[in-house]
Specification:
151 residues, 38% helix, mainly alpha, 4 helices, two-stranded parallel sheet, 4 strands
């Protein structure tokens, strides 16, 4: 993140940006994470709760010119190679969403739509499952918010 870029965004009318997940596991470094121990932990965090729910309070955004909406979870595309872990990924996301609803916090799920091009039906099915869970949470907890999406 570069403050100069954010100033330009604000100048041209942007009000929000997606910041980084606020845990040590996701702090930016110069290390190539894909083949490092930290990268392995990030991969496992997709399926197992290593870094927590990564939710945050709306009060963290009040009074700022450009609001940082940290990502809570990256929705990795369906993996036929790791198909046996997909249920864990979905449980991880839905549990974190439920945690946010119980606390009245924000949960920001984000993804790259182009990642859905392979295994499209599985990816869209997972997205539908997440949307249905969100609808359930709205009814149970009386949520008045909606998805925040980066596309």
């Amino acid at each position: 993140m570069n403050d100069d870029y954010l100033k330009v965004c604000h100048k041209y009318g942007f009000t929000h940006f997606r910041g980084m997940i606020n845990t040590a596991l996701y702090k930016p470094t110069k290390t190539v994470f894909r083949y490092s121990p930290m990268g392995a932990l990030r991969f496992l965090d997709t399926y197992l709760n290593i870094s927590g729910s990564n939710t945050y309070s709306i009060e963290n955004t009040v009074g700022k010119d450009l609001i940082d909406v940290p990502g809570s979870r990256f929705l990795r595309p369906y993996s036929s190679k790791f198909f046996f872990l997909e249920k864990l990924k979905m449980r991880r996301i839905k549990n974190s969403m439920t945690d946010a609803a119980k606390k009245g916090h924000i949960y920001h799920l984000w993804w790259h739509p182009h990642n859905f091009g392979i295994n499209m039906s599985e990816n869209l099915s997972q997205l539908e499952e997440i949307c249905c869970h969100f609808d359930h949470l709205k009814k149970v907890y009386g949520l008045k918010t909606s998805f925040i999406s980066d596309i």
